[in-house]
## 1
Amino acid sequence: MSAGANPAAPTAIRPPEAPVTPVPAAPRRRLADREGALAWIFLMPSVAYIIVLVAVPFVLAIGFAFSDVTAGDPSFDWVGLRNFRRAFDDPVFWQSLTNTVVFTGVSMVLIVLLGKVLANILMADFRGKWVVRFLVLLPWTTPVALSSVAWLWMLDSIFSPIDWVLRELSLLGQEGALFGDASNMYWLGKPGLAMTSVIAVHVWRITPLAAVIMMAGLVAIPRDLEEAAQVDGAGYWRRMFEVTIPMVLPVAAVAALFGVVFTFTDIAVVDVLTRGGPNNSTQVLTSWAFFRGIEGGDIGQGAATALFMFPILLAAAVAILRAVRRMEVR
Amino acid sequence: MAVVEVRELVKTFDHGKVRAIDGVDLATERGEYLVLLGPSGCGKTTLLRTIAGLERPTTGQVWIDGFDVTGLPPRARRIAMVFQSYALYPHKSVHANIVFPLRAARVAQAEREQKARWAAELLDIVPLLDRKPRQLSGGERQRVALARALVREPAVFLLDEPLSNLDAKLRATARDELKRFQQEVGTTTIYVTHDQAEAMGLGDRIAVLSAGRVRQVGPPVEVYDDPADTFVATFIGSPPMNLVPRDGLLVGFRPEHLLPAEAIPTGDRVRLKLAVDRMEYLSGDRHLYGRISGIGQETRVVARLPATVTAPISAGEGYDFVVPRDRLRFFDASTGQRAEPVPL
């Protein structure tokens, strides 16, 4: 149409001979359109799962903690706080609590630090990076039972390859050697070394997960920011502490939350390596609850000990989530 | 003396497969506003990043303020850069953002405060100093980014499409602010954009880039009126320059110089016939689309008639049109380069 033509000329909207389309069936709402019903259908499996495997055992544990149920006498009798009093009177409980806190605290510091370092390695671009990535993620993908057994051999009191290496390097088994003149370290046989070994294996196991979470946080930092800091004259450490770490902190806090929960409630490493020994020096709350409640048969005591972890973990979770929230809001 | 100079700069990616910068020689004059203009992928941002030191040139040199800085990191180059995203540190307040470069340079506290205040006053952001970047509008973020660049008192500002994140309405005022800011500060500025209106409005000189090469460097008037080749002729100007093939040449003229014969009754004119087939009415101007004959091969062209030309024109008709002879530009049809004028 040109500007010269009459702009008011009527425009046909539809060709006059347009075929009449057959009247379709009345529109109906199908199941897939009903969001309320769909929500229930999709949520049910996980709700059932949580009720059966989390809520029921949790309620049972609370019930057992106030009862005199034992493996030999499963009848339920209310005993009030007796189980807690007896648990608190036992010095092993307090040692387990201390050990748990040390185990968790030291592990977390190491996991976060090493996780950051490994995340940098995972992100770096270099020849053969896939081999390194594979090796970094390997500990995480290995089943705990399997890797702990491998560690059991690594830390064996007589055949430990670590000891063999130390001996070959003349750091062990000689007069005046750095680690003493005994032929072996007895990694799992001495209290301090046993705890060190448990922490080392646990850190080795969890760090890859922390590294992957950290990497997700690091990748999400816009590259502009790093470059702006470079142009602004900031060196490596200033960029790290003033740009990278503050930006990655919310994600690191989430990684730390998972780490604390995994570590505080972990039983696998202790159970396979030391079973709490020697002399309860690596006994943690989970292992102690397990040994008292299941192996010792005093289910009420075990439940009370295990339940003691709940408020501590709840407080930790709330604290970390609030810290994350504060960082996001500002 | 040139503040920034690049010599025979080449930057390749993917082991030489991609030549992002393909031999660029360019120098800024002191205090000038140099705009790097080109379509996306022409290498203009890579060139800026190479000057900043964020990319290492494959070959060639970068000189800043009389020193060869080719191998130096960004921090040693006395430059300040404003990124497309502004790249403000989101966890720091506006004030902490502005003093960050000063703290990195270990400037004393008192001097830091004084400079931050000076920059904040110059850019009119004093009330915003305690806010976080997320609480600022796009225009305010730009001013904070400029303040952060300014406190370093750099030899050169490098701006990478700073207006492209703003909405169209804000862009005009932000452009005006940028220009006034630079005139006030007087610092040499290199500005990257793909928007020719920005380039024309801001630049003292414009360097037009295409495929990693500089096609033409000159003031906006020169780049517009005397394009060095057909790329510049058609990239700059909206609608672009008309090019009519004739005996191995391309005859070029801007749409606004193709006018009805009665609009230019005197002077040395080239006469031709325009068969108008479509017309657009754009902010007071009439854009005529049609086929032209009389100076070469019959070609589709655009004519832009300003509101002052009131000759009645309707689509589907032919008219006598003219182009002033001194407005004709000639290009070699095979190379695209400027050629000697020929009589028509």
## 2
Amino acid sequence: MKAAACLGSRYRGDDAVGPLVADRLRAAGAAVLECDDEPTRLLEAWTGLDLLVIVDAVSSGSPPGTVHRFDPGDGPLPHDLGLASTHAFSVPEALELGRALGRAPRRVLVVGVEGASFRMGDPVTPAVDAALDGVAAAVVAELSED
Amino acid sequence: MSSSDTPTTREIRTDYLARVEGEGGMFVRVRGDEVEEVQFKIFEPPRFFEALLRGRQFTEAPDITARICGICPIAYIASSCNAMEAVCGIELPEQVRLLRRLAYCGEWIESHVLHAAMLHAPDFLGYAGAVELARDRRDLVETALRLKKAGNTVMDVVGGRAVHPVNLRVGGTFRAPSRPELQALVPELEWARESAVEFTRWVATFDFPDYEQDYAFVALRQPGEYAIERGRIVSSTGLDIDVSEYEQHFTESHVERSNALHSTLAGVGNYLVGPLARYALNSGELSPLAREIAAEVGLGDVVRNPFRSIVVRAVETVYAADEALRIIAQYESPEPSFIPAVPRAGTGHGCTEAPRGICWHRYEIDGEGSILDAKIVPPTSQNQKTIEQDIVGVVRRSLHLTDEELAHRCELTIRNYDPCISCATHFLRLEVERA
């Protein structure tokens, strides 16, 4: 079983990458885990998954719209990409917690889109918007691979 | 982080929410033995939502404001529903009101346990976070996750789902759960109640820094129950007002150095909302079991040490499980499950006890139900000035600590309030400068 977890807020500029990709994945029939702000709820949903693809906006200083693909293996998720979209418990922390408790997916892949603006009420940056279809297609391909 | 052997100026700064830079942070400057400056700024999404609400239908306010926080959506839903029901002249039938209170009990359990066990307890035990705690004490974290899930499940069953519940509406619920659906929650809630008692005993053994403040406590009060989803606003300084009178007594003022608003109570100044305030003002209304465990761990009638807020949260978790079971035991599925809301021009106010403290809403709508104006005052912004005051007091008493210990103590102080930035204080960075 493979699934995607798409993070972020639709109301916060380019932070909407996750939800906007989730819309596309659902339309394509892919499995998307509900997450929003509280990722410890994911611990059960992702336990036993063969692959979890985490889709999120990132803020690393690259040009807006740059697509990052990161396979952490058994290592930690890259906090320095700015994967901290929650205000209580971040997904990297939840994944580390899952590993400590034996409740983690077998493999994790991070697909991030570089954002430019994350303020409440901002629109999605055009370069980010332009990247979303391609990202969604790539994630669907990852999820459907044998 | 940088340091020196003989620092004359020490600066402590956090940059949380790195992705939303400029919207929040903490800064402390110490010169010699004097705390020269403290700034604590918070992220305030409600300001954006107030603008977003204008022009929307009054029935949309619960769903829209639920998006402000994934941890405490019921607080926003309940406060906005109360306000709209006040405009429309709706009084909820008892079973419908109790359903809302039941969902709120679920939110208190999930929010309190997430904060107390996963974010706050590791501070006291010397762990960097829940992950490190889980490696050593897997049993504790597994229990906390199950306890939290018990709360989430209540929110799922009553609210439709735990994150941004969709079943709650102005006037009641779209669909009232059947009695068997709620009865199915009983075994896990009974386990949760017992586990919360054990959790309370455990957190009460922590080593709490010696620090007390003579806070002005503000909370809701409803005779006959521990106020959650309704009540008058009262204070330890003698205030006792209807929620519609809030703006006559509480003022939000702009602070020159930031975009944040500081709340003050007229004639008093800064004040405190949240578990300590509720406990100080309403502990006599707790259930016998919650009162018993509070007495057993030595809480007394009033807790003025903010570090002991974790114990009060644990007691409130016992209460929330107890109260949920009480509501379920007497429950009869209401028919109809809501009172239809007919809009009329006017202004309505709503205030409920979010896990972090009172969450106050005001809406003005026209005769067609269109929202003309919205005002939302969340708990963390009300506590902001008091948090600053606590940081000053704690730093002043902790200057003997190393920079690292001092940074940790500041993190702990902020986390006492369970602000909507709890995890972010992990990014606290300490800087020491030579003058």
